[in-house]
Amino acid sequence: LLSPSYRGDEELVSEILQSKDKEACLHASDALGNTPLHLASFNGHIGVVRLLLAHGADANRQNGELDTPIYMAVLANSIECVVALAEKRVQFNCQNVEGFSP
């Protein structure tokens, strides 16, 4: 799920989310601690972000640098992703390792 989320492959993400391994895939992370939601948010893939959120992805999960998906969306200047994540009542005041917050 990490790679198709990074690429914005909505069709493949949707397929994976229908599988029995959905939960493990939703919470998987890369070497930096980024989940599929972090990767889709950072790359501005709003369709994938919505799919992941609809299937229960944790919008407040922090990666190894303590960045949240909404912080990644802000970095990418992806307003649509920021709005979609904000609708999930994310924490705006959490800080990453550098002391920055969304």
UniProtKB/TrEMBL annotation:
Entry keyword Repeat: yes
ANK repeat ranges, renumbered to this chain: 32-64
Highest taxon in the source lineage: Eukaryota
InterPro entries xref list: Ankyrin_rpt (IPR002110), Ankyrin_rpt-contain_sf (IPR036770)
Repeat found in the keyword field: yes
Keywords: ANK repeat, Repeat
Protein name per UniProt: ANK_REP_REGION domain-containing protein
